[in-house]
Hints:
The chain has helices spanning about 1-20, 105-115, 120-125, 135-150; strands spanning about 30-35, 40-45, 50-55, 60-65, 65-70, 75-80. Helix 2 runs antiparallel to helix 4 (about 135-150). By secondary structure, the protein is an alpha+beta fold. Helix content is about 35%, strand content about 25%. It is built from 4 helices and 6 strands, in the order H-E-E-E-E-E-E-H-H-H. It is elongated. Strands 2-1-6 form a 3-stranded antiparallel beta sheet, with no helix packed on it. A 3-stranded antiparallel beta sheet has the order 3-4-5, with no helix packed on it. One calcium ion binds near residues 130 and 132.
Amino acid sequence: MKRTIITLLVAVVACMSAMASDSDSTTTYKYLAFTLSDGSVVTFTADGLSITYDDEGNATVTSDGTTTVLALSNLTNMYFTNNATGGTTTYQTGDVNGDGEVTIADVNTIIDIILGNEVDDDVLERADVNGDGEVTIADVNAVIDIILASS
Ligand SMILES: [Ca+2]
Ligand SMILES: [Ca+2]
């Protein structure tokens, strides 16, 4: 059990430092989510979050004035998310930059990628609008089609 606790602690520290080093970018996660062994997900507001571990194998999570005790043996996964109910945030097709709407800015983001500019992996994933596995001018056209269809 000690090994599990240490592994979890390392994971938390790694996530926290990833968040800290990310502070210059627009990626800030709002929630920390735990997947329990029954497949359900519990989320906690990441702001002001504190997690402590005790000798009985429990993690006590304090967030937003609420304290929740979770058995470590019941946890199967932990990740940061912007979705209050856990899981990955879903974006509408063509919203490459993830700002909630499909606009010319998404076209520009795809063109940037085609020109070789580095972007986050999730942006790169969404940039393949037509889902053929690569980011090309065809994806630019796909986004333009979406913009034209909605206007
Ligand atoms: Ca967008
Ligand atoms: Ca594509």
